[in-house]
Amino acid sequence: MRSKIVAGNWKMNKNLAETEALLTELAAKLPDTQAEVMVAPTFVNLAAAVRTLDSSVIEVIAQNMHFAESGAYTGEISADMLLNIGIDTVIIGHSERRAYFGETDEILAKKVKAALAKNMRVMFCFGEELDDRKSDNHFKVVESQLKNALFSLEASDWGKIVLAYEPVWAIGTGETASPEQAQEMHAFIRKTITEAYDASIANNVSILYGGSVKPANAVEIFGKPDVDGGLIGGASLVADDFVAIIKAI
Ligand code: G2H
Question: Which amino acid positions bind substrate, per UniProt (predicted)?
Fold first, then answer.
């Protein structure tokens, strides 16, 4: 059975003291849940976050990594550096990385392979832009994002992959995909993976929805059969909101 996951992507928010305070509050308020709960603070606060939390209850994950082992890549972070501080899950392909930092499918494919080579778990993000949806190209775009970054993986790699479908038009905009739109795309993603691999891989991969998930819409979105949880941005920065979203699973 695939896991339910609720992950908080803190993006470039919270200094050290705020990170420790939010994690402490979150740990204290965390409800009993069947979901795996994860948080992705900014790089400089990852080690402190690992020290603050009991990793069996809340897992600290990274927002990004470089594909190279080490070397002259100013400003970058390697898989080994993450593993060394106790982090073994990494978000790859977030739309903000694609849009603002020029991360192409080709770069993302390299990052995915590099993470998997180190036995890390990858939370791979993808999703169409507003123009793609308006022109009815959203399925094609999603299919090509998956194909270019993931479909050269071995079948055995898929146990380490979590998918996060995040339509770009719903990210941080307050606009959310309807539960029906999310379900439709998640079912399409499983069909695409079934065609490329097989139904067991497609049925065992967790597919999260991301894009303006809030306490008010989480129950409906998470209620859809192919939605296995969420990648939460803005609402994960407030403990009570994140807790309410976790309870919605
Ligand atoms: C999408 C999401 C988290 P938000 O980027 O990855 O952010 O919930 O603020 O739309």
Answer: 9-11, 172, 212, 233-234
Could you tell me if residue 142 is inside a domain?
A: yes
Q: Is the pTM value of this prediction over 0.95?
A: yes
- CATH code for the domain of 233: 3.20.20.70
Residue 132, domain member (yes or no): yes
> Would residue 91 count as lying in a domain?
yes
Three-state secondary structure of 214-240: CHHHHHHHHCCCCCCEEEECHHHHCHH
Range of the domain at 205: 23-115+125-161+172-247
Q: Over the stretch 19-31, which tens digit does the pLDDT of each residue have?
A: 999 999 999 999 9
Ligand 1 atom nearest the C-alpha of 95 is 5
Spacing, Cα 213 to ligand 1 middle (Å): 7
Under DSSP, the state recorded for 241 is: H
Identified catalytic residue from 94, 103, 128, 138: 94
ipTM, 2 decimals?
A: 0.96
Quick check: is 94 catalytic?
yes
Ligand 1 centre and the CA of 231: distance in Å? 7
Domain count, the chain: 1
127 CB near ligand 1 (under 6 Å): no
Q: What confidence tens digit (pLDDT) does each residue in 174-227 have?
A: 778 899 999 999 999 999 999 999 999 999 999 999 999 999 999 999 999 999
Q: What is the dihedral of CA 237, 214, 6, 148, to 10 degrees?
A: -100
Closest Cα to atom 3 of ligand 1: 233
